[in-house]
Amino acid sequence: MDRVFPRKVLLGVTGGIAAFKSPLLVRALVKAGAQVQVVMTRAAHDFVTPLTLSTLSGRPVLTELVERGAADGGATWNDHVHLARWADVVLIAPATANTLAKMAQGLCDDLLLACYLSATCPVFVAPAMDLEMFRDAGTQANLEILRGRAVKTIGPENGELASGLSGDGRMTEPDAIVDALIAALMKPSKLAGMRILITAGPTQEAIDPVRYIGNRSTGKMGFALAEEAAARGALVELVAGPVALTTDRPGVTTSNVVSAAEMATACKTRFGACDVAIASAAVADWRPTKVATAKLKKGAELVPLQLEPTEDILAWMGANKRPHQRLVGFALETSDERKNAEGKLVRKNLDLVVLNSLNDAGAGFGHDTNKVTLIDRDKNVEELPLKTKADTAIAILDHLERLL
Ligand code: CTP
Predict the structure, then answer these.
(1) pLDDT per residue over 14-65, tens digit each?
(2) Which of 404, 337, 325, 334 is nearest to 375 (CA)?
(3) Residues 253 and 284 in one domain
């Protein structure tokens, strides 16, 4: 299977000859689904051009803490704290003896070192230098210090070096670096590489140009599921109704829709290519038969709203499900909860139903927590305690993986 690494990577490139492999490393990361922000040292510019790395990563390459000569004649500050917090992982490859020494001493004379000092995520270095420099007691002591501070080393490898000598000091090959990151940071998951369709949030059914029928769903549960599925390596198609949430998780593609009809169209075009669909959206069951073209005036005679049912998207997916596809639905119930949820599981041809009871404190719309019961097609029932929506997403996907 192709490599899957949907993570935000801050890639530090320092000034060694192995930087000629950096473009390949950026490509390998991007191909695996990573978002890559390159931060180069000044010395690295002598070995590889920022243009090459910005083209391959799709983001401007950064070098200076303060960029002078901005178009307006002023200076721009590159916010190292924000950059470090953005990253899921900091990878410095190649890491020269000089940069390793500065890291070990806590020096901070460029943007990359400032990012390293600000990082709270895992940090990996791929040392690359000539064999005597690598063997040098100072370099070894610095690596020891860094390992003691939980910095992980990848390589170096033994082999032919740029000097013509042979020994330890070759930077690990780009694909092998990505493999090392995957092995260290990705839990093996059956969802890796799968396509998952997730619906989230409410829908709005227009009454007139300013009014609509809606509901209190915020989309938090659906977004939590999308982010967790992507973290496991799934390629997520997130179809979201009107919500205040956004996600920049690598692996999640978000499509924003407004009405149940738009959500149905978006799902129908995506469902065929998906292995799993999770319907967490609170789709309106009814919509006005006619949408007034002008705003309804309060002085006018009150005309009762005529409603018609919307299409049940989940039921459509259940009816069109192919044998390899798995379907997860939600059931928000206020009475006869278990029985109603089991009814939905059968009626809509689901593999798993997530039962939300509005009777539970801290569960349901708007909360950061949820309390759900999972019922699967084999009649296994998993009653979960009150958890954050992020932890609930983990439990739902763990249960789903058992059904794959
Ligand atoms: N759903 C959907 N399209 C709709 C309505 C609901 O895809 N038009 C999905 C929801 O995303 C959820 C599940 O169906 O996963 C449960 O929806 P719900 O409205 O609770 O159940 P219904 O089957 O509509 O039954 P009832 O209204 O009787 O509870």
Answers:
(1) 999 999 999 999 999 999 999 999 999 999 999 999 999 999 999 999 999 9
(2) 337
(3) yes
| Domain C-terminal end among 185, 215, 235 | 185
Do 271 and 324 belong together in one domain?
yes
Indicate whether 366 pLDDT > 80: no
The Å distance, Cα 130 to ligand 1 centre, comes to 64
Positive or negative, the Cα torsion across 19, 4, 154, 185? positive
CATH code assigned at 226:
3.40.50.10300
In 257-376, beta strands by DSSP E: 276-279, 286-288, 307-309, 326-333, 352-357, 369-370, 372-376
Q: What atom of ligand 1 comes closest to residue 329's alpha carbon?
A: 15
Residue 1 has pLDDT above 60, yes or no: no
Q: How far is CA 244 from CA 67, 157, 223, 240, in A?
A: 33, 48, 11, 10
Distance 291 CA to ligand 1 centre (A): 23
Q: In 3D, which of 177, 91, 171 has the Cα closest to residue 127?
A: 171
Q: What's the total number of domains in the chain? A: 2
Same domain, residue pair 90 and 56 = yes
Single out the catalytic residue among 78, 98, 215, 340: 215
Name all residues whose Cβ lies below 6 A of ligand 1.
Answer: 199, 260, 279, 281, 283, 285, 310-314, 329-332, 344
What is the rounded CA–CA span in Å between residue 375 and residue 393? 15
Do 343 and 199 sit in the same domain of this protein? yes
Per the domain annotation, does 331 fall within a domain?
yes
- Mean pLDDT score of the chain, rounded to an integer? 95
Per-residue burial over 322-336, b = 16 or more CB atoms within 10 Å of its CB, e = otherwise: eeebbbbbbbbbeee
Domain ranges, residue 90: 8-185
Q: In the Cβ-directed half-sphere of 184, how many Cα atoms lie within 13 Å?
A: 20
Q: Which residue has the tokens 């928000």?
A: 332
Element containing residue 8 per DSSP (H, E)? strand 8-13
377 within 8 A of 329, measured Cβ to Cβ: no
Q: Are residues 234 and 364 in the same domain?
A: yes
215 is catalytic: yes
Q: What is the CATH number of the domain that holds 179?
A: 3.40.50.1950
